[in-house]
Write a structure and sequence with these properties.
Length: about 80
């Protein structure tokens, strides 16, 4: 008898599978819902950084979470991007 064991490991830099709450929403690729425009991103070093519309890296950022306000992002442990 032959037994086969298959293990599947999925990783994602900034898991966004179920972040919806009163103050945050899951992104759709690079896009956040219009009423949650603040992009929260977890860097490779594990830093939680948020970007506001109009900031230099906003359009290039793949968010882990989307927030309605910068205060909500800060309450969730994110800091403002150093480059604005």
């Amino acid at each position: 008898m032959i037994t086969t064991v298959v293990a599947l490991v999925l990783t994602h830099d900034g898991d966004n599978s179920s972040v919806d709450s009163e103050t945050s929403r899951s992104p759709d690729g690079r896009n956040c819902p219009s009423d949650f425009p603040v992009k929260g991103n977890v860097s490779q070093a594990g830093e939680r950084i948020y970007h506001l519309p109009g900031w230099q890296y906003y359009d290039a950022t793949y968010p882990s979470e989307c927030f309605s306000t910068a205060d909500d992002a800060e309450d969730a442990g994110y800091r403002a991007s150093k480059v604005q």
